[in-house]
Design goal:
alpha/beta, six-stranded mixed β-sheet, 13 strands, 23% strand
Length: 313
């Protein structure tokens, strides 16, 4: 076993996994897995820069994670940064801050690298299952981007496109600096048009029509699963490898897009940091299911974070 630490810093959240990895058996044993909503991508789509307050929230989480990594005695650490830090003009400021706190430089990876990590993390433990047809389409719906990966034992095609839940919300569902509650039909149509154009782009390099099983990753998808199961609180074990039908995803998405901030916040399994962006995230999932004709989505709690951990091991 090798004790490794992996950090995934996205547009909406930063996450840590400390685990014991055994490459020979394919076993990854969690020691600590945690997530903090930092909204690093706040305003990036509009300004092209990381906001000072967003950087400070992220650095505060990094200081907390540094303590956890030291406590567990991880031998190796890899820090991967994704969509927001790829797009920002002042990403050097972000890199310097992380290096000072954690002693490693964040790797600002490409969308294609991000997609391959997500695929490895989500599908490594599915090997040998006979109830899920291959090839898989893994979709990782993040804050700034969504990754599409089709593959079986290896990746056949991968593409990252800019339709994350934060980006879509800030681009189309905000008026005068405030999220519209609920959004108008015109706003929803604008989000849908952006999503459709992005999926068209993904389809140029990823054989979406070949997919036989849709595997959904990240907070928007797991939250939809929690709502579908009427969970009294967020429960990773109940969510991991749950299946949500297309009809249920459509029903939940329509409800979220019709609801107010207070109504979404009152959902027992809803993380406070997702209240304003979950409607857009659910709409991304629904649109993808419609495009490929998926009757259900298999929800995975294992994603890019697990893929990063395996790359270290």
């Amino acid at each position: 076993m090798t004790r490794v630490a992996a950090i995934d810093c996205g547009t909406n959240s930063i996450r840590l996994l400390v685990a014991d990895a055994d490459p020979a058996t394919g076993e990854l044993v969690d020691l600590d897995r945690r997530m903090t909503i930092v909204r690093l991508g706040q305003g990036v789509d509009r300004t092209g820069r990381l906001a000072p307050e967003a950087l400070e929230r992220t650095f505060a989480a990094c200081r907390e994670y540094a303590g956890v990594i030291k406590e567990h005695g991880a031998e190796r650490l890899r820090f991967v940064a994704t969509s927001a830090s790829r797009d920002a003009e002042n990403r050097d400021e972000f890199v310097r801050g992380v290096l000072d706190i954690l002693g490693v430089e964040p790797e600002v990876i490409s969308g294609e690298q991000e997609a391959e990590f997500s695929f490895t993390g989500a599908t490594r433990e599915l090997t040998g299952r006979d109830d899920l047809d291959k090839p898989y389409l893994v979709v990782d719906i993040g804050g700034g981007s969504t990754e599409f990966v089709v593959g079986d034992d290896q990746v056949r095609g991968a593409r990252s496109v800019d339709i994350g839940c934060v980006r879509m919300t800030e681009r189309h569902l905000v008026r005068d600096g405030v999220v519209t509650d609920p959004p108008s039909e015109e706003q929803i149509a604008a989000v849908r048009a952006d999503i459709e154009a992005a999926v068209d782009l993904a389809e140029r390099s990823v054989p979406l029509s070949e997919a036989r099983t849709l595997v959904g990753l990240a907070g928007s998808v797991t939250t939809v699963s929690a709502i579908a199961q009427n969970l009294a609180a967020y429960d990773s074990e109940a969510i991991h490898h749950s299946r949500v039908s297309y009809d249920r995803v459509r029903e939940i998405t329509e409800t979220l897009l019709r609801s107010t901030h207070a109504e979404r916040a009152a959902i027992p399994s809803m993380h406070p940091g997702r209240v304003d962006v979950i409607g857009a995230g659910a709409l991304v999932l629904l649109s993808i299911m419609e495009r490929i004709g998926a009757t259900e989505v298999v929800v995975s709690e294992h994603d890019i974070l697990d893929g990063i951990a395996w790359s270290v091991a």
